[in-house]
Amino acid sequence: MRTLKDVQCGETVTVIAIKGEGAIKRRIMDMGITKGVEIYMRKFAPLGDPVEITVRGYELSLRKSDAELILVQ
Q1: What are the boundaries of each domain within the chain?
Q2: pLDDT at 9
Q3: For residue 37, is pLDDT > 80?
Q4: Residue 7: what pLDDT?
Q5: Does residue 32 contact residue 43 with C-beta atoms inside 8 Å?
Q6: Does the structure show a pLDDT above 80 at 48?
Q7: What is the CATH number of domain 2-72?
């Protein structure tokens, strides 16, 4: 399975599931990242962490450790 961490810059993907449990999963879902939503990978920080994405019409920065919990296709 591919995660959001593996997505290349400029690529659009669809969320198929969110791994993790409890507070971490809830925090990701509260940011608007839910099953079926499209995510556009905008850019990476110079050292690779965090990544910047566009989700539901707004820009969001995520740590790579959080991006690794988001399964995409």
Answers
A1: 2-72
A2: 92
A3: yes
A4: 92
A5: no
A6: no
A7: 2.30.30.90
Identify residue 9 by its one-letter amino acid code.
Answer: C
Are 14 and 69 spatial neighbours (Cβ–Cβ below 8 Å)?
Answer: no
Q: 7 near 41, Cβ under 8 Å?
A: yes
pLDDT, average across residues 24-52: 92
Neighbouring C-beta atoms of residue 8, cutoff 10 Å: 8
pTM exceeding the 0.85 threshold for the entire prediction: yes
- Per the listing, tokens 């198929």 go with 16
* Cβ proximity of 68 and 4 under 8 Å: yes
Which residues touch 71 (CB under 8 Å, ≥6 apart)? Answer: 1, 2, 3, 15, 16, 17, 18, 19
